[in-house]
Amino acid sequence: MPPRLPTVLGLLIGISTCAALHPAMAGTPPLPPPDAIPQPRDLQQEQANLQLVHQFYLDFFARHDIAAAYRVVAPDYIQHNPNVADGRAAFVSHFTSYFARHPQASASISQYGSFGDRVFLRVHSTADPDDRGRAIVDIFRVSHGRIVEHWDSVQDVPATAENGNTMF
Question: Does the keyword Lipid biosynthesis apply (predicted)?
Answer without folding.
Answer: no
